[in-house]
Every structure is written in C-alpha cells, then in structure tokens.
Design goal:
Number of domains: 1
Structural class: alpha/beta
Radius of gyration: 16 Å
Distance between the termini: 10 Å
Oligomer: single chain
Strand order of the largest sheet: 2-1-3-4-5
Order of helices and strands: EHEHHEHEHEHH
CATH architecture: 3-Layer(aba) Sandwich
Shape: globular
Length: 193
C-alpha cells in the first residue's frame, strides 16, 4: 500500500489550497491501494522554530517536542508527499520556512544532499497565487522540493496555479477546465504509482 501525505501550508480556511486538498481527496477516496494522510499546518497548536542548535546532529532527534515532530515522522514514512501552499506577496507563508527548517533533523552533513535511488520517494509542490511571475514561483517550488531530499525525495513535480484571487477560484476553474482537471488528476495518479 502506498502511503501519501498531503501538507497544506495555507493559513486561510476554505481557500484555494483547501479546495486543492478536497479535489485530491475525491481522487483517492475509492483507491484501496493508497493510504492518505492530510495535515494542515494551521491546525497545529504547538509549533516551534528550529533554533539551529545542532543537538539533532548528536541525538538524531529535535530538542523540540511539538506537533511538528509528528508531521515530520509522517513525511519521513510516506512514499509520496504533496505540498500545497499559497503565494503571498511573492513568497509562500512563513509556515513553509518553519517546516523546511525543521527538516534539518534528517540532514547528515557527511552525506550532504546525496539521495538514495534504492527507493523512489515522490513529491508534488503546488502553489496557488493571484498574480505574479509563475516562472519565479516555480523556482521556489523546486527549491522547496530540493530541501526534502534530506528525507529521501528523489523525484518531484511542480504545478503553479495562478490567477486564483478569489477564495474559490480553484474549485470553479477545475470544474470548468477539463485540461486543468486532467493535469491535476494525472499528478495525483503519479503520486500514487
């Protein structure tokens, strides 16, 4: 059985990122070969930032015993990860940086960003935004995926979902755009392969 984890970094309830997650849930609801876990960072109550203390390099665990530890374990154990976030003022919200920084617990300085090819671990990074340079946001998405190499991500894809100013723009767009719906379904199928 494939284990997937969807991480939403959106602080906004019922917005486009939540709509993307709902669309994904419909894709997986009848697939018995897939176990999907959904996490929204905004729902976590006890969250601490990495303080760069390097304790994790000695103990192999973070000094913080907060809700992020459970999220990191889910990400580590997953076969595939979907990371969904809005873009606010040309960059994803701080919740992404906080989570990426906490991946440091998995980083082995002696190996650098070397990734095992023994097992495929996939990641989809989807950014939703109102306007702006999609090609620049795509660079941020690739950098985000690169940071997840420390937990074994060795294949990733990105999708930039622009012109999403309205809170329900994705829902309306995917309902009326068969090409977008097909692309999203294809990406979610790829994660479950």
């Amino acid at each position: 059985m494939k284990k997937l984890v969807f991480i939403s970094a959106s602080p906004r309830k019922n917005g486009n990122c939540d709509s993307i997650v709902e669309f994904a849930k419909k894709q997986y609801e009848n697939k018995e070969s897939v176990e999907v876990d959904y996490v929204n960072i905004r729902d976590l109550k006890n969250v601490k930032n990495c303080i760069g203390c390097d304790s994790c390099k000695k103990t192999k665990k973070c000094i913080h015993n907060d809700d992020i530890v459970e999220v990191l374990n889910k990400i580590y154990e997953a076969d595939s990860i979907a990371f969904i976030s809005p873009i606010y003022f040309n960059y994803p919200p701080a919740t992404i940086k906080m989570l990426v920084d906490r991946l440091y617990v998995f980083f082995d300085p002696s190996k650098g960003f070397e990734v095992s090819k023994d097992k495929v671990k996939k990641m989809l990074v989807a950014f939703s935004f109102g306007a702006g340079p999609a090609e620049e946001y795509d660079k941020v998405a690739h950098t985000t995926a690169f940071n997840f190499m420390v937990i074994g991500v060795n294949e990733h894809k990105t999708i930039m979902l622009g012109n999403q100013n309205d809170k329900k723009a994705f829902s309306e767009k995917v309902a009326n755009d068969s090409e977008l719906a097909g692309k999203m379904k294809s990406l979610f199928d790829w994660l479950a392969e």
